[in-house]
Queue: 2 jobs
Job 1
Amino acid sequence: MNKFFASFVKEILLLIRDRAGMISLFIMPMILVFVMTVIEDSALNSTADKQISMLFSNPQNDSLGIAIKKGLEDTKAFTILEAVDGKPLDKQSLEHYVSAGKYPVGIYIPEGATDTLRSNARKVVMKTFAEIGLTSGEAKTYDFDSVVINIFYDPAVRNSLKALVDGAIGQHSANIVGKMISEMYSEILSDFLPGDKKLNVNYPTMISVNKQYASEPDNTIIPNSTQHNVPSWTLFAMFFILIPLASSIIQEKDGGTYLRLVTMPKTYVTTLIGKMAVYFIVCLLQVTILFSMGIYLIPLAGIPGLQIGTHFDALVVAVLASAFAAVAFGVMMGSFCTSYQQAASVGVILIIILASFGGLWMPVYLMPKNMQGMLGYSPMNWALTNFYDLFLRNAEIKHILPNVYKLILFGIGCFTLGFAYKAIKKVK
């Protein structure tokens, strides 16, 4: 234990003396998180990629639903799925799949939608007949039943996707269905009027859209730009610990410290564990600082603050697993690389690649299909999915455990590879 403590204290002293490293670990991530969150809040990302998977439920094969589905398909932006694993979707299952983050959006067409529209149209006709005197008696006041189309969004989706879906739904529900019905009945009624008399049909809004985030019953979190940006850039900062950690390992080799360590009556594993412990704490400090910024500082700029959910135990587990993976990755790179320049260049490239595959640069649903298949191999995606589940879906610890296990196994694998490589080099 004394040997571990000595190695631990040594790493702290080296880290404190490295001013550039301290700036890169704390100051730069703070600036990055704040600036990117402010920018993202006032801007819409473009939704340029095509064929976004969308759940669609039209249980009665309603004419309105058929028209809306066709309109969505005509945009060439969506792949319409009416079943999952061969099972047709109802309203409850559709919302469940979307709330779990498996699909970005789902649309539910209520039963009897077209019948309700026809009933409303008949009421419009009768009311109009009475108002122009074609029927006897006073014009009645009719109650019109609105057809409500339910749109469920994954809390993690960006505003650009919502705008695309809202536009398609609004256009085809109002322009295609509502306009078609009103024009048809206007023509019918005009046949009963004198040639010099014009018909002015005032019809109510027959279709309304209920837009909401899909959620489990106990989820009261309202998504915002901060919920997306703070965890993304925090993970980016955590994995950038690779560079100072790898540099520390390389400096020990170049300065002869490594030779003294391996000849001392303690194993190199002990040295690595001590080094990892220091940088593990650094990762925890990064998370604490950046999340605190999201909660307390970012709202000062007029932007909604970070909501971390109600399951703090799950958050702790997610943070610990992410920190372990990031630190172990740095140890492996420090073992493989032979110079600081090599560690810095290779490390930056690897981090950017993992970030791009992990969904940090753009939402998963906007990525090409072949790239989406690579997400399962990025530790950043596992970690980001955990934070999204906690911050946007208020998930419990059991929901994040699969990705937690992946992060732990990834960390163990990186540490093992790094140690094995050192052992081989020592033998040679």
Job 2
Amino acid sequence: MTEKGEKMSKFIIQGGKKLEGEIKISGSKNAALPIIAATVLNAGTTTLYNVPDIQDVNTMFEILKKIGATIKRKNNKIIINTNKVHTYEIPDDLMRQMRSSVILAGALIGKYHKAKFSCPGGCDIGSRPIDLHLKGFEKLGVDIKEEYGEIYCNTEKIVGTQIHLDLPSVGATENIILASCLGEGTTVITNAAREPEIEDMIKYLNKMGAKINGAGTSYIEIEGVNRLNEVEYEVIPDRIAIGTYMIASAITGGTLEVDKVVQDHMEPICDKLRIAGCDIKYTENGLILVAPKKIKAVDLVKTCPHPGFPTDMQSQLMTLMTLSDGVSVFHETIFENRFMHCAELIRMGANIKYITENICMVNGVEKLHGARVKSPDLRGGASLVLAALAADGKSEISDIYHIERGYENFENVLRSLGADIIKLKDE
């Protein structure tokens, strides 16, 4: 049972079906969430397009509603009005459901100079401390007090400064930008994260009237402005969802056409899939993947901040490598608990050996077999679905609420490509 007392759902998958066809890709989860948080800054109306209909987005909407915003959804169009936001407290129960909710703190500090929140939740893939976020706030002149697991932030004004991040943290970069937009003077972030989703948030903010330079680089400069305006904006396609569906097609020997991609965003993923033998061609707006007859091993996969190979694709690529002709080594450098899917893949016949806590070796096997497995987290859960699609026989994947946090209509998209997949509620 979930926290709300709802019955848990599971996927039943009959493997061995070739996945091919065309898909329309939804907007990026990791771009939509900080953009939705940023709507607080304009104290007016924001119209967003291509926002994915997924649990994490709905949780962020619930948080905004709790603090006074109104949200209207009509198909692919979201209208958010933050004119009547009346509190700077992020509800604890919702905060614990999703780590990305911490991004709202930067927006509240930027707009109201106050924020109160607890430590965020989300997938259990590592400690993911928010120390860098808090250090960034302090450098901007924010007084921070921690008491009984709650964090209180308060300042009379945000003053521009220079902030060096010890690590290129995506969340810390986003939070500092959001807190600085309406501040006094200029804030410079060095060793900033370069992820495409940050670049998208900056484009959104600049369209509202912010003055931010350096999007997509490690040096970001934010010149404070007095106000931000109402705006319409379309969220970028989800590179991780695209990569996941590409592997779904590759692992089952199919051909996939994706309607919309940003080429630069996809290259770290496409590079590895080409080494694996996939034929990938960009079209005018999208791409086409043709699976190889036999999957080749990718010698070394090391996750790195963008433009390196994304940690959010590590488990999916590992699943592909379980059926490769050769040996692959995976080195996870971002999160310490991101191999939790390995034990479940081994249950399905994969040959995976742990070298250290963050390095494992995958020796490709001829086939996987269906099994009962449990989704450990969002991307690890998606990797088990991919394994089940390629496996002999029937698989049952439980705890799929993790997966639904990040993929819109996952089973329906897969079914449209030919997958034999159904979603059932537990008895």
